[in-house]
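Bit of a strange request maybe. I'm writing a small parser for structure token strings and I need a real example to test against, not something I typed by hand. Could someone generate the tokens for this chain?
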Amino acid sequence: RGGSSSQHPRTGIPVYSFAGVNDKFTAFSLPRLWALLYRIYRKHKFDVIFPHLTPRYALFSLPLAKSKKVPMVLWYAHRQVNWQIKAAHWFCAKRVSSYPASYNYKPAEVSFIGQGINTKRFCPLPEIPPAQPFTIVYPGRISGIKRQQLLVTTLQLLYAGKNAAALPGLKCRIVGDAQLPPHQLYRQQLLAMTQRLPPRLEISVEMGVPSRDMPALYQQSQLSVNLCPPGAPDKAALESLSCGIPVVTTNQTLRGLFSPELEPFYCPDDSPEGIARILEGAIQLSPARRKTAGQNLRKKVITLCDLSLFMDRLVALFQQAIGGE
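Reply from user aminoacidic:
Good idea to test on real output. This should exercise your parser:
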């Protein structure tokens, strides 16, 4: 609890754990956090503090940052704007995010560098997976903002409709964790929706898929789905595209990044009827056309989001912060 340390098994990078997973952070935790930060600084003499996604940790790091003249570079990728992000924005030398839709406070002072995808790890299989059953996957946290219930409603409509006989049997895998009580309630509602399905439609809600198994999850699918509302695109959608799996989406930012290649898979209409039309067209594409579309989308992921390019951009911002630019 004073800050246990270990090394990352592959890179050897020191990893310090401040508290247990279930511990609550209170005002009484601050002295322990400050003691840990100063102890790490004495040992490693780091050049930059990189608060990631949680602006309050930029504020917690202020005493060390100011006393040792260590610049802070804040990464933030949420639509919410509150006093914590405003204060952290003020005190950090650089502010970084993926896309403009993910940082809504003084965007002119923010560097937008996209997201980093390990395109060597998230890559296609040499051959298209067997088409029986036709499989679509929706990866991501189980929560209302991801709108998995909208996908279930859409598939129920599609497979109970007049064109259902022309569609193949379909397996839909909704994969993600639900840790917070609202997310757990949403998952229970989602499970209830899957109890009565039209013929030849199977929907599973799966939890606990480890990160190491995610490439195989995409590779074993013919299509991926992402129905997040306007905002920064989900990393899971980019990972799907990196695996050569087209993504049926309603996300305008994702469409803007990958147009025109993504156009046949983009639905501007949030209604189940509109999404069903796009899904039906994507399902009925020939395997060869779907493979070609996936290959073109993967090429664009490599150009825009490859992890090595992302790290070059991020390290350049670190160097600017160190140099006072």
